[in-house]
Amino acid sequence: xxxxxxxxxxxxxxxxxxxxxxxxxxxxxxxxxxxxxxxxxxxxxxxxxxxxxxxxxxxxxxxxxxxxxxxxxxxxxxxxxxxxxxxxxxxxxxxxxxxxxxxxxxxxxxxxxxxxxxxxxxxxxxxxxxxxxxxxxxxxxxxxxxxxxxxxxxxxxxxxxxxxxxxxxxxxxxxxxxxxxxxxxxxxxxxxxxxxxxxxxxxxxxxxxxxxxxxxxxxxxxxxxxxxxxxxxxxxxxxxxxxxxxxxxxxxxxxxxxxxxxxxxxxxxxxxxxxxxxxxxxxxxxxxxxxxxxxxxxxxxxxxxxxxxxxxxxxxxxxxxxxxxxxxxxxxxxxxxxxxxxxxxxxxxxxxxxxxxxxxxxxxxxxxxxxxxxxxxxxxxxxxxxxxxxxxxxxxxxxxxxxxxxxxxxxxxxxxxxxxxxxxxxxxxxxxxxxxxxxxxxxxxxxxxxxxxxxxxxxxxxxxxxxxxxxxxxxxxxxxxxxxxxxxxxxxxxxxxxxxxxxx
Length: 504
Hints:
The protein has 504 residues and is α+β, with helices and mostly antiparallel strands. It contains 9 helices and 36 strands. The strands form 15 sheets. Strands 24-23-25-28-31-35 form a 6-stranded mixed β-sheet, sandwiched between helices. A 3-stranded antiparallel β-sheet has the order 1-2-3, with no helix packed on it. A 3-stranded antiparallel β-sheet has the order 20-21-22, with no helix packed on it.
């Protein structure tokens, strides 16, 4: 190419540059680099203290299920934690953002979130038990009043039903958990629950009538308690029952039988110190006819609500095959047969307690080769038991029937014996005899034998209610050291072994 040609090309290019717009000029002489994006964001990302979750390069919002767990993200993508109100319901998200379900403890409070995570309120049945969660979702414990009804929720929040002992008092909550007040009948027994719901114990005047509720809350009816009589409706009849006792100690036979007067006096001391104190008649050294007359005299005026106690300490006759078998022996050689005794006592209105400490010593007891005939002793006691069973009656409906059981309670000293049932006690050079049966009876009831004074404790009272039942005194006598020493086994006839005989 010639120089002239080259010069011409340069001139043409210069003219093109001078006539072109500025932006076209830049495009010609500069090559602006295109921005290259980093890889698109995905998964969990943290920014300025908040967490986000990215999909396809963008943060997700709203409800999201990630790796099997539910999360909630705000409209700006921020992951939510703690309590959140969403769609009118409250949810709780852990610090990791995971939605919580089931029981949740925050501070001292428990909450319950259902399977959808919604916080529950009101009554909720969870795993078979009822709970109450207040409007803030907090599980309630203790007493709870809703409307006019009271409920009790234990320390685990479970609604309680049935009998509940709370702060030392008994309450009854029905199957719906509602605390009951007023009259309540359960299993045939009546109870009274005060306006506070507490089970009533003791006296109650209601609609003009007096009622009595025993230590277990059961209303007394058809019985007497602490000397008071109650009819079938539980009304106090207006009069207190009277307890009477006839105590006979036959000691001065032609051959003296030591200890019988001590037995009689010891029983008098014990009975006089009871809560249900007895009016006592003592009759030492009586004949058969005198014993019968004493029964009529001592128990005169008895009513169906009263208690009459007959005690005898003396000889008992073993005469197998005769009508006198098992008789109580008068000091004059006369005999009061078991059937005569049972017949006389059956004519006494009300409850009758019979305690027989008959000594089987000397010639009165049949012997074989100088030894006590156990079969004769066993037969004697059975004759007494049979006699009372034969004339057994129940108390009239007016008396309340004392649980509807039999009229008599009979305790006899022994089923058999190998030695005399009286022992000697020596103190400070003085000797005195006692009947082992009577001593066990008196001391089991909490009295000292020789003085009759209350010792302050009741050895036979196994349940600590200060009431001595037939079972308690019977078992105490059976296990007494002196009774076992002389090899005696007390016999008992009673339809209701749990009946209270004596009350301290």
